[in-house]
Amino acid sequence: MPNDPQTPRTRLTRRSLVRLALLLLVLLAVAVLVGWRLAARSLRPDRDEVFETSGLAAEVTIAYDRWGVPHVRAASLADACFAQGWVHARDRFFQLELARRAAAGRLAELLGEAALPSDVRCRRWGLPATAAAQAAQLDGDTALAVNAYAAGVNAAVARFGAAGLAPELALLGGSVAAWTVQDTVGIGLLLERSLTWAAEDELRRAAELRALGTERAVALWGWSEEQRAAWFKAAGVASGQPGAAPSVPAGGSNNWAVSGQRSASGYPLLANDPHVGIANPATWYEVHLQAPGLAVAGASIPGAPGVVIGHNEALAWGFTMSMLDDQDLFRLTLSPDGRSELVDGTWRALQLHEETIPVRGRAVPEKLQVASSLFGPVVRQEGEEVLALAWTALRGRSPLPCFLRLDRAGSVEEGARAFADCEAPGMNLVMADRQGRIRWQVVGLVPLRGRSAGRLPSPGTDSLAAWQGWEPFQRNPYLQDPQAGFVASANHDPFAEGDFEGPPFSGGFAPPWRIRTIKGALAAREGWDVDACLALQNDVGNPEARALLQLLAPLLDAIGTAPARQLHGWDGRMDAQSREALLWAEFLRELQRRVGGDEAAAAGLAASPIGGQELLRLLSGSLDARWWDDVSTPAVESARQVVAAALAAAAARAGHHRWGERHRLLFAHPLGQLPLLGGLLNWGPYPASGAAPCCNATAYRAASATFDVVWLPSLRFVADLADWDRAVFTLPLGQSGHFLSRHAADQVGDWLAGRAHPMAWSPAAVAAATVARSQLRPATASPGE
Q: Kind of pairing, strands 427-433 and 315-321?
C-alpha cells in the first residue's frame, strides 16, 4: 500500500529526513562555534583598543589584568558605573539577559515551555511589581549610578549587537530590550530569593507534622515544651493529608575578621567565601573601580553597579546570610468564588489581576490570575490549601543604596551606618578597617510578628497574625573588637553559640559545624596571614562525621567488619582522593534512609526526615529509640542491626572508588543540554573535595541518588589590611561568559586546589598587572549636529 508506514520508500524518506536534520544540527553547531570564536576575539581584548560611545562625560580607561579583571579609572561616579555596565555586558551579556528575564517572569518567552513554572512562581510572588516599585524609589547617587550602569550596558549592545555579545541569543532568537533600572533591581530581588528558604522550612515542618503526628514531629525537631505551646498556639494544629516536604540543599557561607593582635602583619585580616548554587558563568564578577570619591575592588553582581564583597582604601567587608526567619506562610480561607478572603469574620476582597506570559512555541500566551491578600501574595493554591507569603524583600526598599554607601565607607562604624535603613532580608556583615577595628553587624529587616510565630504556616483569618512592622535597627545584634581577637559568622545561631546575648531572634540556622571549626582554628593560634585564611576556607575536615563516628564507635567495634574498621581509622577528611570519605557518605545516606525512610514511605513524605542532627540525638539517647525499628517489617530491629545493614550496603556501593569519583562538580551552561553543545558549553565534571559540614562546603542533596555538587563556595576572598595589593580572590570558573575565551574557566584549577590570585590595587601594581587596555571616549558630534 502506498501509505503503508513500513514501505521502503517511507523508511528511506524518514532516514533521509533524520540525516538532513543531523546535517542541519551540525551546520548550526559549526555556525554557532564560528560566531562564538569571533565574539570571543572581539570581546576580550588582546591588545589596546579605543571606542567612542555616547553616554560618557569624559574618557574612561579600562586596564585588564591576566585574569581578565577590569581596573576602571573614570573622572566621575557616573562614568565609572557606565564602564562597569559596559564590561559586564561584554563578558556576561547572556547571563544578564537570562537573569533579568528570570526576575521579570519572562524566561519562557525565550526558552519555551520548560521555563514556564519559573515564570509562574515569579509572577505569583510579585517580583516584577516589587522591582518596579523599588526602582521608582531610588534617588540621589543611587539613581545616578544605576542609570549610568544601564546606559553602559546599552552602549555595549549598540556597539557589538546582542548576538555579538551573546551568541547564544543568535541560536535562540528573540528580541532584546534596552536595559533598565528595574532590570537591575529585579536581579537583586532574584538573588535574595535564591538565598532564603524559610517558607520551604515551614512547608517541610507542616508535612512532617501531618505525616508523623504531633508527638513524634515535635520530638524530631527538638522543640521544648515552651516552644511547642507557643508555636502551636500561633499556628494551630495542621490538618489534612501528608504532603511532600521540599528538599532544600544544605548550604551556607563563611565570614571572619581577625584583629591585628592575632595577625602576622599587625593589621586585621578579613576572609569571606559565600556559598550559593552552581552557576555557569560564575555568580560573581571581579572589578576594580576608581573615580573621585570612589575607590573599590572586589566581587560585583552582573547586572548591578558597585561592589558587594571587597574593600576600599580604608575598609574590607564580606557577607553571609543571617538565616533569620524572614518569611511566613499564612493559610487563607477563600470565598466560593475565590475572590475574597475571610479575615476577622468578614470577607475581604483580594487584589486580583491577570498576568500574560508569552511562551516560545505557543501561539497563545499563558494567562495567570495573580492574587494578593492582607498577608502578602498568594503563592500556592492546591485543593483547599491556599497559602499567602509575607517576606521582607517584598515589603521594603531596594538595598542598592546601602551597598553603594558601603563601597565608600571609611570605618566599621560607617559601614554599619550604611545599612541602618536596609530593608532587605537579614545578612551578617563582617568588616575590618585600617584603624585596626573589626565588627560583625547583623543588617536587614527583622519582622515584628503579631500572633504568628513563623515556625509553621499560620491561620490567615486573624488580622492580628499579620506582621506588625520591623524591629528597630538598634536591636540588630553586633559585636565589635571582642577580647577573643576575632569575629566569625557561618549562618549559625549566634545566640546558641554564645556570640550575642539578649532575647534571640528565630531563624532557620545552619548546623554549628562550620562555625565551630572556624572559631576553634582562629582561637588556637596567632600569626594569621592570607595563606592561613585560604587554608581554613579550604578545610575539608568533617566535624559532623567525627561526632557521629564517636557515638557509633561501640556499634562499629561490635560489628567488626572491614568497612567498620576502615571508618574507625578514618581521619574525617572529605578529600577527593579518599575512599573512606565515600564510604562515610554512602553509610550516612543509607543510615538516614533506613532510620527514617520507612516512616517517610508509610506516611507519604518524599524523603527521610532524619538528617545528621537527628542521628546525633538518636545515638545520644535524646530521640526516641523507636526510630531504629523498620515499621515496614513485623520484626523489631535494633540499632546494631540497622547500622550493620546500612554499612554493608554502603560498602557494596562504594567499592574501591574515591570520594571525588562520585562527588563531582559540573558547571552546566543554561544551554548545555542541547545536542552537540553540552560538551562545549559545560565545564567538568571535576572531582571535588569537601561536603556541607566542611568549611569547603561543596554540598550535595541528601535525598538525591548521587553525590554531585549542587552548592559551593562561589568566591574566595581574603584581604590583609596592611597592604591592599595582598588581597586575593578566586572564582570557581572565570571572568568571561564566552566559553571560547581564555578567561571562561582559567580560575577553576586554582579554585579546586585552594589557591587564589592577587587583585592589584595600587597604581604600580595595576600597571604591572595590565596586559591590555580599553579606552572609552565620549562620542564626538557629527557635522551639523
A: antiparallel
> What b/e string do you get for 254-279 counting C-beta neighbours within 10 Å, with b at 16 or more?
bbbbbbbebbbbebbbbbbbbbbebb
Domain of residue 568, CATH code: 1.10.1400.10
Separation between Cα atoms, residue 297 and residue 766, nearest integer Å: 12
**589 shares a domain with 455:** no
Helix, strand or coil, per DSSP, at residue 676: coil
Domain boundary residue, one of 488, 522, 537: 537
Task: Decide if 503 is inside a domain.
Answer: yes
Beta carbons of 35 and 163 less than 8 angstroms apart: yes
Helix (H, G, I), strand (E, B) or coil at 85: helix
Phi-psi region of 630 (alpha: psi -120 to 50; beta: other; left: phi over 0): beta
Domain of residue 508 covers: 253-325+402-537
Q: Bin 110: left if φ > 0, else alpha if -120 < ψ < 50, else beta.
A: alpha
Q: Which three cell numbers stand for residue 220?
A: 524530631
Give the mean pLDDT per block of 10 residues along the chain (785 residues).
Answer: 40 52 57 57 66 96 97 98 98 98 97 96 97 97 98 98 94 92 97 89 88 83 66 48 41 92 98 97 98 98 98 98 93 96 97 97 96 97 91 94 98 98 94 99 92 84 93 94 98 93 85 97 98 99 98 96 96 98 98 92 86 94 90 92 97 98 97 83 97 97 92 98 98 95 97 98 98 95 51
Question: What distance in Å separates the CA atoms of residue 530 and residue 175, rounded to the nearest whole number?
Answer: 46
Together in a domain, 548 and 430: no
Evaluate the CA torsion angle 148, 418, 402, 254 in order and state its sign.
positive
Cβ–Cβ < 8 Å for 220, 287: no
Show the cell assigned to 592. Answer: 538516614
Query: Are 531 and 547 found together in one domain?
Result: no
- The residues facing 382 across adjacent strands are 385
